[in-house]
């Protein structure tokens, strides 16, 4: 069977060396030396500052909302954030969990990221923030979103779970926004089994979040604010450090797979249009088929050959049972109905990629 994704497992001896160190120090969690080392190495590799590592990518979002003051916990005021219906469920569920009502606006038909015009039209007195997603690692129109956010004095938190290592206009895409969040889940391009991170634009927000992830306890030992336990452990950091050593290899392999799919499928199907001035990470290969019916046929055909392509992202998040939806998101609804993600992972051979692409192409089966 060919899964849609598979975790990357680094060299066992390398991982063991890090774990030996943990045993020697007997320091397992609470901002240990491996978490500190991973923080510094990731800041260097990604070209970012104020990176805070956390237990997973969902907590990264929740901590970012808290640190930037958009969580709906104060008073009885209803808090809202503008977000995209075209993402993984955690983008929306993390908002709801923090008492923030998601307001969905439509995506651009080419980039599949939030349409800035739609964002601006949806801003009301209740809007407390903007939560766009660099979906499949493709850069949002960050300059327009920045401009709108400044004009209306709203914080922007990018869910950058797919955007590890993406460069936009010569610098890390993760440097845009008041905060950008990462997921290091096992199935992501870079992982620490479970894990995540937040990159803050301002040091003061980073400092606040550092207390939030440790029960609200300040560096002086006082309890200054409401907090949670969102810490990354030393074992997670050990895996992260081992995977980070191989990151160039991982990226190169993804690029090869992406290009092989693209070569066969680009002339018959719609694919995501990379934003101008972007160096992609080739983390996913999504393809939009011609109809929902065709999606069902192709997915079935792939399953029969043991290939687990997935309808991803479907359904659009505005149709979740727990959101109050009044949105008109026709682009997201349309793309979501017709999209599938093909397998992309380190161990996938070029021959397999060619076979899968052929199974997808109607005229070749
Ligand atoms: C994976 C993912 C998350 C959640 O990250 P976890 O580490 O699994 O909690 C959030 N947003 C998006 C877009 C994701 O793909």
From TrEMBL:
**List of residues that carry N6-(pyridoxal phosphate)lysine:** 188
KW Lipid metabolism (keyword) present: no
Does the record bear Transferase in its keywords?
A: yes
Q: Which domain of life is it from?
A: Bacteria
Active-site residues, as the UniProt record annotates them: 188 (proton acceptor)
Q: Name one GO biological process term.
A: polysaccharide biosynthetic process
What is its EC class? Answer: transferase
The UniProt record lists the EC number as 2.6.1.-
Under the GO molecular function aspect, what terms does this record hold?
pyridoxal phosphate binding; transaminase activity
Keyword annotations for this protein, in alphabetical order, are:
Aminotransferase, Pyridoxal phosphate, Transferase
The UniProt family comment states:
Belongs to the DegT/DnrJ/EryC1 family.
- Name of the protein in question: DegT/DnrJ/EryC1/StrS family aminotransferase
Species of the source: Halomonas elongata (strain ATCC 33173 / DSM 2581 / NBRC 15536 / NCIMB 2198 / 1H9)
């Amino acid at each position: 069977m060919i899964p849609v994704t598979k975790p990357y497992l680094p060299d066992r001896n390398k991982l063991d060396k890090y774990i030996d160190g943990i045993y020697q120090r007997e320091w397992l969690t609470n901002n240990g030396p491996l978490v500190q080392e991973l923080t510094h190495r990731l800041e260097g590799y990604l070209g970012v500052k104020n990176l805070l590592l956390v237990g997973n990518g969902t907590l990264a979002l929740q901590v970012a909302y808290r640190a930037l003051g958009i969580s709906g916990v104060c008073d009885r005021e209803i808090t809202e954030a503008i977000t995209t219906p075209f993402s993984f469920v955690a983008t929306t569920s993390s908002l709801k969990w923090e008492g923030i009502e998601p307001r969905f606006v439509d995506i651009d038909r080419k980039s599949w990221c939030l349409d800035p015009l739609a964002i601006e039209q949806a801003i009301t007195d209740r809007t407390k923030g903007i939560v766009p997603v660099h979906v499949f690692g493709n850069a949002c129109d960050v300059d327009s979103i920045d401009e709108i956010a400044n004009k209306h004095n709203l914080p922007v938190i990018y869910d950058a779970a797919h955007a590890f290592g993406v460069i936009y206009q010569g610098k890390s895409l993760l440097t845009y926004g008041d905060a950008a969040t990462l997921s290091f889940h096992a199935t992501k391009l870079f992982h620490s089994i479970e894990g995540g991170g937040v990159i803050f634009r301002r040091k003061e927000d980073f400092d606040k979040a550092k207390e939030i992830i440790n029960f609200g306890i300040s560096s002086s030992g006082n309890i200054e604010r409401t907090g949670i336990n969102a810490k990354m452990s030393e074992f997670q950091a050990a895996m992260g450090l081992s995977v980070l050593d191989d990151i160039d290899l991982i990226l190169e392999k993804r690029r090869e797979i992406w290009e092989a799919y693209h070569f066969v499928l680009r002339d018959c199907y719609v694919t995501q249009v990379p934003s101008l001035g972007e160096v992609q990470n080739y983390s996913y290969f999504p393809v939009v088929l011609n109809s929902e019916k065709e999606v069902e046929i192709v997915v079935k055909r792939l399953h029969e050959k043991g290939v687990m392509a997935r309808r991803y992202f479907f359904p659009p998040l505005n149709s979740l049972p727990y959101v109050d939806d009044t949105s008109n998101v026709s682009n997201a609804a349309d793309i979501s109905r017709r999209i599938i993600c093909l397998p992309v992972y380190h161990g996938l051979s070029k021959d397999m990629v060619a076979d899968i692409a052929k199974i997808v192409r109607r005229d070749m089966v």
